[in-house]
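Risk register update: the risk of archive-format incompatibility is retired. Evidence:
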Amino acid sequence: MPGLMRGMARTAAVVGTATATRNAVNRRQADKNAQAYTQAMNTASVQQAPPPPQEQYAPPVEYAPAPEEDLTAKLERLGALRAQGLLTDEEFTAAKEKLLAG
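Archived output:
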């Protein structure tokens, strides 16, 4: 039986060495994968596309205020409407009073 014991001891030593080697290789590969992942994430964050440009809008158009029609022109226009028969005397008087009050 001593020969059998030596054979088993030798087998145990070989299996133990193989297991230790396999574990070391696995750890080394896992470290490489973790480093590659970290590097890829850092590179990806640096190389991200720039944000899209903000939309450009034309500045609002500023219109000049309508020229203020003077009171005389307004009264003349009301008189012309009355002369054409488009305003009654009452409508003309009410519109004239409104213009003079305003």
